[in-house]
Sequence to fold (384 residues):
Amino acid sequence: MLKTNSRINLIRKRSAAHKVYVPSNARENQYLLVEFKPSLALVELLTKGNSSDVYFADFYRHLSHLFFDLCERFDLANVSFIAKNKLVRVMFCEEQNVLETKQQLLFMYNPKIHTGLRTFFNPDLLADKIELLFLATGDDIRAQAPNFHLRVSNLMNALAKQLKLDVGSFKIRDHQHLTYDIFANNKGNKNTITHGFRPINTRYQQQALLMPESKNDMTFAVASLPINKLLLQSCEIDESADDPYNPLYTYVSDLFVKIAKNYNLNQLALVANGKVPIIRQDNENYVLPQGEIVNLGFKTEGSGGLYVSQWDSKNLVDTIKLVFIATANNANRRGYGRFVNHLTQVLKELCRELGYSKEKDTITLRFHQHLMYYLPNIDSDNEL
Fold:
């Protein structure tokens, strides 16, 4: 009997290790980005040859109108037509806005309340790619994700037929985020939601939406570590030195890696130079700074581990970004729960060592799941 009880307790402990209790006020978000390459033949088709090679405004207007008409038909309420050759990013905000920089288009919105139709294009340039952005709306984003994905894919099939294009030329990216303060419980939010963090493909399959066999998926998390007065006082900073903040960033990065390795987390990055870290799955590990962003390529399989540090020792940033890349070893049949629990423990230990207050400081964790594939023809109402 003792052995039986011990076995039951062990099973319970193992099961609990794969469950994550996130704050009930965690923000869910999803957006789909579909891209395809325009051609001069398509320009002539939509403008009936009336548009010159150097002025594409009519083409973009005709194409965006077709797109918006289909969005109304498929009940998609917050969409954008983009032909700007810029990186598209999406963030939560109580006020809907779009910020445009030299390299980025940053869409900020609240999925519970915001809708809209927007166009962004350069009339004098045929963009390298057309991007169609679909922002999820409503209250239950995660539960409605398969339906949202299916409506987008059906719309793209309809658009391909209207444009007489091969639907296989459309690349679809499904981005899903869960964002919360790891110390929300200490600030009075005692209610939690249980998450197993299953892969997107697994969740869709369990809800009768099948993905194509040829696809890429990626999972990672980004934590935002604010630099406060106490942290600055923990290091000797010589403002007259050529690299005054090198001791600070070195101290944080060394401690970060040390703690993370205790939890067998070996695909890590620290970014403290004001650039936006863009995580990409690749066959090789690489670091590629490019203006406002820094591209970080990681191998999710066959890598013995990699730690990337990118900081500007001459300047003090407001926030240090800590990146955790999930490898194939971080996933199992239950999902990524153990991975999230481990990285959360890393963050809590790091914050304790650095003197952060659980009651006052906000340490935001955003969990990312991405799925990408080229869209095949749809043969039934619920399969891709």
Residues 219-370 form one domain.
